């Protein structure tokens, strides 16, 4: 399959590009800079220059491909306004990609977060939130999945709060960055809230499996660790950085503060049973031992 990939140089995207190429697919990847282009070409991908805001470029990439993996997302999370702008940009891009595939029965795999289920681990059957700080992502993913009725094999991989590789990435990575900046490995509340996690290399395998065979209109969970307590995550970060570990206000984490404070474990039992996905790389707490002081 010739696959058009956006976001192919990120923590998840770079692993997905390698996974696809290693398993016999070819890749056309969106590159926004000379550095991204070099990285993608070195990996073995063909490159299409443009940004997530270049909707005509996205349509052209989709037209040249047998399938699409949509991973790109804005890099500015410093405020609620910038996060909302990134979500709006992603939504417009997903609409353009999806419309370009209508009627051809070609696959597109998009990404979202795992949902919240009160008092239990969320499952693949739980709906995405369509309100709150990231509700726009839920609405755009639902719109993409609805394209199943128009001849698009649209699917979604729901990612946990932390996608990690060599001690970096995801919400645990943001917690680490905040600890370096503030001098405290902090967590909101009592730290008992749980975050699910997955190693980027395991997530990449799931993206490939979903692209290759998942039915239209379905959602899947890339969850290896159902939920680690945030205070346990912070304890490893603090020990690796030589910093104190203690509670801090939600506001310390900017627009992500309310999300950081939520208890949000998630299960991938259905995904594993239906697609044969088996995570095999280090857990989050083990991988955080790779944080460099």
Task: Explain how this protein is built.
This protein is an alpha/beta fold and 293 residues long. It folds into two domains: 2-162 and 198-225, 3-Layer(aba) Sandwich (Rossmann fold); 164-196 and 227-290, UDP-galactose 4-epimerase, domain 1 (Alpha-Beta Complex). The protein has eleven helices and twelve strands. Helix 4 links the parallel strand 4 (67-70) and strand 5 (107-113). Helix 3 packs parallel to helix 4. The protein is globular, with a radius of gyration of 18 Å. It starts with a strand and ends in a 6-residue tail after the last helix. The model has no long low-confidence stretch (mean pLDDT 94).
Number of strands: 12
Q: Tell me about the biggest sheet?
A: 7 strands, parallel
- Strand composition percent: 15-25%
- Rounded mean pLDDT is 94
Structure in a nutshell:
It holds the Pfam family Epimerase. One of its GO terms (molecular function) is aldehyde dehydrogenase (NAD+) activity. This protein is α/β, with parallel strands linked by helices.
Itemize the secondary structure elements and their pairings.
Layout: E1 2-6, H1 11-22, E2 26-31, H2 34-43, E3 46-49, H3 55-63, E4 67-70, H4 80-101, E5 107-113, H5 135-145, E6 153-159, E7 162-164, H6 170-182, E8 185-187, E9 194-199, H7 200-213, E10 218-221, E11 225-229, H8 230-241, E12 245-247, H9 257-260, H10 269-275, H11 284-287
Parallel strand pairs: 1-2, 1-4, 2-3, 4-5, 5-6, 6-10, 7-9, 8-12
Antiparallel strand pairs: 9-11
